[in-house]
């Protein structure tokens, strides 16, 4: 784009971010402060993820951008366009074709490979912020691995509700050392982070933090021996493709309680339907 | 109903942008507002946008106000996003407000003082009556020229803080300790030093800083302030390129400066004296400069051995929440889709309810 560097950020800023990324990879799960820049998109729209993506993007990369698992949500469209304009890289909606996947709130259903990088947009990198608002204090807690507060919170959940009441942004321990926010992905996606072959990078622009999980790293969702971690999903198959192992969105179809459950990962669903899988509501769509 | 969800996002975005442009232009039967008009006649809006956008450029400030349809936070955001792409040639020398070309200068703590009290173009003593003559499109006669300062303002006017300082009753001004921090390049770290705090306040949201400053006056971290001096005017900006070896003047900027003088009973190490709160803002913005000085002083509580009990004294609280570009982004991001998370919450509540019902049935 005229007047702007490749992928918007100047090379020095990219280098600064890459240095932080290297540090983040070297200390899995540790939040590295970085000189987050003001981006032409608002804070909260994925400025951290965009800066990370901009710093790692090369001319031969193929970029996929998803929001809520879908390629066609407005914000995903907007970010994909941003990189289309400023970097001119090839974009795709197919998970398997992408070399870099920027995501908000989901991990694709298809297992990622070693030659892929997934970049998460993170609104709040501090997993302890609901329990301790001061960052000065939480930094100390991370340094000392002092995570008792979080265990007490989970214990209190169990004693009050009979179960852990966190359903998304479910805290994880990375490499048995740092407590980390997986970003607001549903807890359903947490197990995918464990021993993932792909490099996982996390960018929080407003909070000015970067963190990472190197490939093949242990990522454990916090739980107790007698209350093991349980992922939550709607107890239905996908209405369009019949998948029973994918995370589902609930679509309200009328004002009489009608519901349609469909894959949140649009690429996964489309691929399955192309392969001939049909769900119970699939024929309706075909008829319309 | 067909399952449509959010398909067609691309088309919808284009249509929204077209509609927005049409709305911005408004009724085409009316003349288009020029950037020069905004710059000349909506100066306070331009000042605020420059301050919160951290970029001193009146024309771009005016352009941002026009482009944002008068939404000043959005305008500041436009300026910030532009500013961040600009190369940095160097730092200016510290501006000398003592040699400011004064347009307004008042002190609330001395009846008269060297340099005198100078009201300048203030609205302080206007009666807030709507001036219906401004409604009349035929009323194009410019107002009579203001009486000139007749050379009164030429030469340095001593700062009230310095006058007080001579007697040793006011704490000395903290000297610059090394290169000042820059939170637009380096992330905030705590404890944040005063230079970074002042930077955050100077570009912080006027409303937020005003509210916090006000809270200190109502008992939440009181600082017993007096407006030692408020001055407004132009200062020259100088840079000293290494290859030249001397300073060159690169232009003038308008600043508002406020020195608050605060009562202090002393501590084990310091005798009773007055302490300082400082405010400095781009353009004409006395409200912001005064509020900034109040909050600056409040944030010095722990440094001065005072108990930290109120929001305005909590450095982390103030600094993390004063930036309106960050705040507006994160508040407004709630309108982005969250249905994946909401779905997991729905399933969670359903599961908890089912278990409760099961227990109740047993």
Distance between the termini of chain B: 40 Å
Task: Tell me how many strands of chain A there are.
Answer: 12
Q: Characterize the biggest β-sheet of chain B.
A: 4 strands, antiparallel
Based on the structure, what is the oligomeric state of the protein chains?
heterodimer
Q: What structural class do helix, strand and pairing data of chain A support?
A: alpha/beta
- H and E order of chain B: HHHHHEHHHEEEHHHH
Can you identify the CATH class of the largest domain in chain A? Answer: Alpha Beta
CATH topology of the largest domain in chain A: Rossmann fold
Describe this entry's structure for a reader:
The complex is a heterodimer of chains A (288) and B (362). Chain A has two domains: 11-221, Rossmann fold (3-Layer(aba) Sandwich); 233-280, no CATH class. Chain A is 28% helix and 17% strand. Chain A contains eight helices and twelve strands. Chain A has a seven-stranded mixed β-sheet with strand order 1-9-8-5-4-2-3. Chain A has a three-stranded antiparallel β-sheet with strand order 7-6-10. Chain A is globular. The mean pLDDT of chain A is 94. Chain B has two domains: 12-83, no CATH class; 97-120 and 153-322, no CATH class. The two termini of chain B are 40 Å apart. Helix content of chain B is 38%, strand content 13%. Chain B is α+β, with helices and mostly antiparallel strands. Chain B has helices spanning 9-25, 35-41, 43-53, 58-67, 72-83, 160-166, 194-202, 206-217, 286-299, 315-321, 324-332, 339-361; strands spanning 101-106, 225-239, 248-264, 273-282. In chain B, a hairpin with an 8-residue loop joins strand 3 and strand 4. Chains A and B meet through helix 3 and strand 11 of A and helix 1, helix 5, helix 11 and helix 12 of B.
